[in-house]
Design brief:
35% of the residues lie in helices and 15% in strands. The protein is built from 14 helices and 15 strands. The termini are close together. The structure holds adenosine monophosphate (AMP). Adenosine monophosphate binds next to strand 12.
Length: 416
């Protein structure tokens, strides 16, 4: 695999898979341009070298059909402003042959939403999975996906994948396209490199003690990561909504708290495994319970196993927060995924806020801290602490799969 830092793009046309899947309001205005800004180091390096850019991305879920509200044309000006140069929009990603052929150094093309074509995702549309003809249709779609990817590849001399958000997908633009380039002409972009490095620090380059904090609503969506981390961490904090599945599994009363009743055995199994592996499992002992799921609910602090009927645990209690901080502050490697409570309600942010603050303190003392996966990123942003942790990942599903230890197709494709 080539390295972007070492590659000279002078006179080269680079097709770059970016993640411009930005949130838009009802008028098509971008409400958060983090993803566009995230791609700038790669794009500027290519332009500064004297290369030209063909940018491709998906936006939303058009499911293989043209959907004007999901046109990337809406973000052309924002990309041009961010890059400080003109951007020409091509309203059909399969019709850029002429524009690409005429592209001069320093020029930029932005292709229309790749997912307007079903070939991008490579899944047959309009056929039920149980239909007898599905397998045949899937095979045919894989063949057209190869052609679609080769067509995109034909626009450029070099392929760069800088879309970490979709790196866990084996789509035409994220993986299949790489087959059309030799190993010296395909590479990860700078954002992807940073993401991959951050995950490597967590999985393979661990400084001890290593504390992982897993929160969020459910244990079922995090089980793959919890199992992979069990072989690596010294301390594993499980908090947020999943607390109550554990509390119930231990025979506690959890009132109306969120609970996955079919995961009680799984919870007990996690506790057993942690013991066997010598992992210090930290489950909060107390919580802030509320008499309704609302910011203005009446609250009481109680044991997570003694929640009164009709009440529900919505945040970690003071004892739990103290126990969490005890293993976060001295840690040298930290991973945080998922809030400790319903942080969207101002009155139930304390647990998540104090976790974030403990991580900031540890980071100031030399720890490597990675915050990633959706809501914990929203937390550090909300608390204004994002620039005080070592790394905030841009990937949701991709980050989680990487931490589960899975090989990401978007990374593997350029490594092959
Ligand atoms: P996840 O997507 O699994 O990381 O879950 C994030 C969501 O979990 C956030 O929207 C939180 O509001 C929610 N959450 C965290 N703690 C609780 C809780 N105790 N009860 C209900 N939801 C919770």
């Amino acid at each position: 695999m080539a390295k972007i830092e070492d590659f000279n793009f002078n006179g080269k046309k680079a097709i770059v898979r970016v993640d411009f899947n930005v949130p838009l309001d009802e008028n098509g205005n971008i409400t958060d341009d983090t993803r566009i800004r995230g791609a700038l180091p790669t794009l500027k390096k290519i332009l500064n070298d004297g290369g030209s850019l063909i940018l491709m991305s998906h936006l939303g879920k058009p499911k293989g059909k043209v959907h004007p509200k999901l046109s990337l044309g809406q973000i052309t000006d924002a990309v041009a402003n961010a890059l400080g140069t003109d951007v020409k929009f091509i309203d059909d990603c399969m019709k850029a042959d002429e524009a690409a052929a005429n592209l001069k150094p320093g020029e930029v093309l932005l292709l229309e939403n790749l997912r307007f074509y079903p070939e991008e995702e490579g899944k047959p549309v309009g056929i039920d999975k149980n239909d007898p003809s599905y397998e045949e249709a899937k095979k045919a779609m894989k063949e057209s996906q190869k052609k679609f990817a080769a067509h995109l590849a034909s626009y450029a001399d070099v392929y760069v994948n800088d879309a970490f958000g979709t790196a866990h997908r084996k789509h035409a633009s994220t993986a299949v396209i790489a087959d059309s380039f030799d190993k010296d002409h395909k590479m990860l972009g700078m954002l992807m490199e940073k993401e991959v490095k951050a995950v490597d620090n967590i999985l393979n380059n661990i400084k001890r003690p290593f504390t992982a904090i897993m929160g969020g609503s459910k244990v079922s969506t995090k089980i793959g990561i919890i199992e992979n981390l069990m072989d690596k961490v010294d301390n594993l904090i499980l908090c947020g909504g999943m607390t109550y599945t554990f509390a119930k599994a231990m025979g506690g009363n959890i009132g109306n708290s969120i609970c996955e009743d079919d995961k009680l055995d799984l919870a007990l199994d996690i506790m057993k495994k942690a013991k066997e592996k010598g992992v210090n499992l930290v489950l909060g002992e107390d919580c802030v319970a509320a008499d309704s799921f609302s910011n203005d609910a009446k609250t009481t602090v109680c044991k997570v196993t003694e929640i009164p009927d009709g009440w529900q645990g919505l945040d970690a209690g003071p004892e739990s927060i103290g126990a969490f901080a005890d293993v976060i502050v001295p840690a040298k490697t930290i991973l945080w995924n998922g809030p400790a409570g319903v942080f969207e309600f101002e009155n139930f942010t304390a647990g998540s806020r104090e976790i974030a603050e403990a991580i900031v303190e540890a980071t100031a003392n030399g720890a490597f801290s990675l915050v990633g996966g959706g809501d914990s990123v929203a937390c550090v942003n909300k608390f204004g602490l994002a620039d005080k942790v070592s790394y905030v990942s841009t990937g949701g599903g991709a980050l989680l799969e990487a931490i589960e230890g899975k090989v990401l197709p978007g990374v593997a494709a350029v490594n092959d």
